[in-house]
Every structure is written in C-alpha cells, then in structure tokens.
Design a protein that fits this description.
Layout: E1 6-11, H1 13-18, H2 42-48, E2 50-57, E3 61-63, H3 66-76, E4 82-84, H4 88-105, E5 110-112, H5 116-124, E6 128-135, H6 144-151, E7 154-158, H7 181-193, E8 196-198, H8 204-213, E9 219-223, H9 237-245, E10 249-252, H10 263-277, E11 282-284, H11 306-315, H12 320-339
Parallel strand pairs: 1-2, 2-6, 5-6, 6-7, 7-8, 9-10, 10-11
Antiparallel strand pairs: 3-4
Helix pairs in contact: 8-9
Bound molecules: zinc ion.
Length: about 350
C-alpha cells in the first residue's frame, strides 16, 4: 500500500548543490539517483509519495566569527558552523537557479509551483512540486523587491533566519522588538501577493504581532515545541496558539528534539501539539538537506521512513483522518488559501 501523500514545508535542496554537500554525511550526486544515505531525491520522493516540497532559498555564507558562533550556540544549545547574511541577493539568486536547473533537467518529475494548475499537477502525483521559499528577508533591500522575487517564482517568505532584519526580530535577538513598521507593511504586501508568511526562526513577539496583522494563515515551517526541547529556537504554547488563530500550520522538524533524537521523540512532539492544539495545525517540515552538522532522528534517516512515523502515530491513537491532515491536507489548505491571490500576469 502507498503511504499518505506528503507535503514537506522545508527542505534545503539547493544548499546541497550550492555548497557541494559540505557538512552533510552523504556525497553529492545526481538527483534522479537513489543515493544511499541522502535525505531525499527523485526516487525517494516518489517512493515516499511526496507531492510538494517548500524548497528553501538560503542567502547566507559561512563565517568563522566567534561572536556569531556564540550567538548560535545560545540559540541551539549545541555548537555548529556559523553563517552570516552577506551578498544576499547574489546568493539567493544562485539558489533559485539550482531549482530552475533541477526542473529543467528532470521535466517529467519536477514542477516549480507558481500557478494553481501547478498545485493540481503536484497533488495528482504527476510531478513533485517545488514551492520556492525565501529563508529570511536579508535580500529584500526594500518592499518592492518582494514583487521581484514573486515574479521569479517565490511563493513563501520566512521573515528572519537567526539574525534580526529590518522587518522583524529573530528567535536569537538580543532585544525582541517584534515587527518594525516596515515589517507590518511587508506582511500586507505578502498577503496581497499570496506569499505564504513563514515564522520559522522568528521571535515570540514577531509571532504574536504577525498573527494580529496577517489576513491569511501563517506557518512556522520547521520547528518543535519547547515542551520537548527548551531552547530559544523552539515554540512555546502562546506561539502555537497565535498561529492556530490565523488558521495556519506548524511543521515538525527532524532536529531540535533534545538528547533522545529518534522517531519516538519526533512522534511525542507531534502528539503533544495534537493533544494541546488539535489536528488542524499539524504539518511536516523536515529541514532535510539543511540539518548541517547534525544527523536526522534515528528512524527518520530519509523521507521514505515517514511511513513508519504514520504507523507509529496510529498506534499512539491518532486517527487516519488526522494523520492525513498532518501528512498533507492542512498544508494544502494553507497553500490553496494563498493561491487565490496568485496572478500569473506580471503587473
Ligand atoms: Zn531553518
């Protein structure tokens, strides 16, 4: 039997190619090859029944700055390589080009999602849909740049990575100022364009204020609850509540789970949010390819293992209908809500 269809709210596929798979435990290789140990590729996505992947456009470069290393260590409670937002336009474009190239190299398997028709193609299972998503707003020198990135195919925008922006405070901010005036405008403009606003890596105040302003459902694409692992990067109950209030979803991440990093803890993380906030907020946001200096949970080494997760959740008492919501239906609901605003003609 085929597993449930999957929509994954966060993978860093372009990072894997732009950075030559550095820092990851597997080798660089063609995307139509089932590479041992790789988190995903066309054969694995097909086997796992993946329909849509939010494909992250990262815009940061490696740095050896001790100050940044220290800041990140506070946020994650582990040491990992440091990054800095530099040459962000150029870096973002380089990542976007990787997705364009993959779609061109594998036209029978990959579609870049920019229209309602593309969503239907992906959901039917004809092709795997890549929904391009900016990780951070560092490349937006002014609000008009949002339209430019929309025209390039971007359909989701994360307000911050681990550094503050001129629009919003990040989860590792030294002073949580929430949204700036420009940040409020950015949200209105993203709503108008139908770009899905992603609060991953954003501060608590940013979550609460964005939920007040956004007219469309918000997401946090890759995160876990502080109840499972209490670090600044994870969410407290009020933040889940804020996203829930907008009709949005939160993606469970294959990291930030604490010491016992395995499929059981990942399932516990889902069950906690399920029992506290109900089934409509649940989604998957693996962060595969983006788990730098860190391995996925034992039992979820790649995307094909998610069928085992669904079985485990069923054993823990989750209904088939609710597992289906987690796997793709909730995320699809949010995408379709935004697609109503998508215009194919450039104004
Ligand atoms: Zn991230």
């Amino acid at each position: 039997m085929k597993s449930f269809p999957i929509i994954d709210l966060h993978q860093d596929i372009s990072y894997y190619y732009v950075s030559g798979a550095s820092g990851l435990t597997f080798k660089l290789g063609d995307f139509d090859v089932d590479m041992p140990g790789r988190h995903g590729d066309i054969p694995k996505f097909r086997e796992a029944n993946v329909r849509i992947i939010f494909s992250s456009v990262f815009c940061l470069l490696s740095t050896i700055s001790p100050r940044i290393k220290e800041q990140l260590k506070r946020g994650y409670a582990v040491e990992l390589r440091a990054w800095t937002p530099k040459a962000t336009h150029t870096t973002a474009l380089e990542h976007i080009k990787v997705y364009y190239k993959l779609a061109k190299m594998y036209p029978d398997d990959i579609v870049l999602i920019s229209t309602r028709d593309d969503i239907d193609t992906a959901i039917r299972g004809d092709k795997i849909g890549f929904l391009l998503a900016l990780e951070g707003t560092y490349m937006l020198e002014d609000l008009d740049d949002l339209q430019l990135y929309y025209n390039l195919g971007i359909r989701s925008i994360q307000l911050t990575w681990n550094f503050d922006t001129r629009y919003a405070a990040s989860c590792m901010s030294a002073k949580d100022y929430g949204l700036t005036g420009e940040g409020e405008e950015l949200i209105r403009e993203a709503n108008r364009l139908g770009m899905i606003i992603d609060l991953a890596h954003a501060s608590k105040r940013t979550h609460l204020e964005a939920a007040e302003i956004s007219k469309l459902p918000l997401i946090n694409s890759h995160v876990n609850p502080k109840k499972i692992h209490d670090i600044p990067r994870n969410l407290d109950d009020e933040m889940y509540e804020a996203i829930k209030k907008t009709g949005g979803v939160v993606g469970f991440m294959c990291d930030l789970l604490g010491k016992k990093k395995d499929i059981e803890t990942y399932a516990d993380s889902i069950m906690y949010v399920y029992e506290t906030f109900g089934p409509d907020i649940l989604a998957i946001g693996t962060d595969y390819f983006g788990l730098i200096d860190s391995a996925p949970p034992r039992g979820l080494e790649d995307i094909t293992k998610f069928r085992n997760l669904f079985n485990l959740l069923a054993k823990k008492g989750m209904s088939q209908t609710d597992i289906e919501k987690l796997a793709y239906k909730n995320a699809l609901r949010v995408i379709l809500e935004h697609a109503k605003n998508w215009k194919t003609k450039i104004p």
